[in-house]
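We modelled the chain as a single entity of 458 amino acids. Its sequence is:
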Amino acid sequence: MLRNTVVGAAFGSLLATVAVAQTVELDDAELRNLVERSYQYVAMYNVNNKFAESRGGWNTVLANTELADHTFTDIARPNNDSLYITAMLDLRAEPMILQLPAFDSNYVSIMMTGYDHYVIAPMSTRLGDFAEPETVLLYTERTQGYSGEPVEGVDRVMEMTGDFVSALMRVMPHANDPERFDRIIGEMQSVELVGLSEFLGQTPPEDSGVDFLAVGATDADIFGTNLFEVIQFAFNHTTFDPSDPLDVAVLKAWEPFGVVPGGSVLDAATAEYDRDRFRAMSETVAAFNLGLMEDPDAVGSILARWGNPKGGHTLESILAQSVIGPIPLPPAEAAYPPITTSDGSTLNSANDYVIRMSADELPPANAFWSITLYDLDQGFFIPNEQFKYSVGENAGYMLDENGGIEIHIAAEQPEGVPAENWLPINRDGIDLSANLRIYAPDLERMETWTPPLAEPVK
């Protein structure tokens, strides 16, 4: 049961201004529909705001110059094969400008998303970018005093769909080449973020400020605590397209409760609803989508849409993306084929496993590949004294004399197995997820290539 007094706002011809006080009953199917269509906004509110909190606030840029370890819990399934540069952009008061250097790396990309979780990846070494410095301006239709006009000295102007945006750069650091690694670190630290006023030498506009809502340790925490106001806040800072089916459907699902673009967050906060029921349904939805990673047929069609912009998703793909791995790169930049077990069981730390690939079976990467181990439920690295979470060019690996490799997931380093090829686990009985990333994949070879299996060690 949900009860709310509504103050509405218009959305083209779809939504009319409403003033309703009513009780709405939701059966399980209706509740699941609302949760599934809301998940992308909940997940990205959690991710983007946690990023901002941990990196000094909005309109900041931070280069991570050390590979992440198990203490990094800002986002599920983080990389351990590349370094991040994270710019957190508040585009309400004025446009923000990223000043990017050239990079001496085999792989660099930048991707951007707001609370709607539709991803754009406008620049990549795959596309020939980052060979020269470049300046990029970002704004939204709500940005004050700017409407997309050219600015002298700015190379690219990009309109975003969200006021609060994470611009995430992945940089292959070439950690096995110390001299090159140090050079790349210097390049990463030279990235700058400035407002348009500072770029033009003008007085910056006054910031009206914003009261952010609490984030959750998990997405389920928001579903069970402050869902209505988080969705209202996200709607107020998102551009919706009245011709986009997913935009229309999510607004239609929330309209009966008065949660519409331009509505009142304070009114949304007064909603009376069964929070435990919403939390439980969000956990059911999350568990179902995590389970898809064990089904290669199901996950194949979903992964083909991961990291796409608006218009490139189904509900199933944007939902799975939000549950399993927020802010993924699009298929042309990275492929994420699942590694399943040879006997069809779920990877579990009660067992050891080996992943074998011959030279001909290695992932078809034009840049590089890695296999990273996580706990299945939360998507965090497995804590271990070796600080070893992935196998790949940056974390280290050793090919055999024939050019193949054996990667061991084990509680103890197996005899004769190089430390580089060992992913340590703890005998705590948790389910695991071995994630394969293929950067700048050879898309033609990917059509016939088969991911390796994890074989239980008897």
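As a brief sanity check on the tokenised model: Residues 2-47+215-287 form one domain. The chain has a mean pLDDT of 91.
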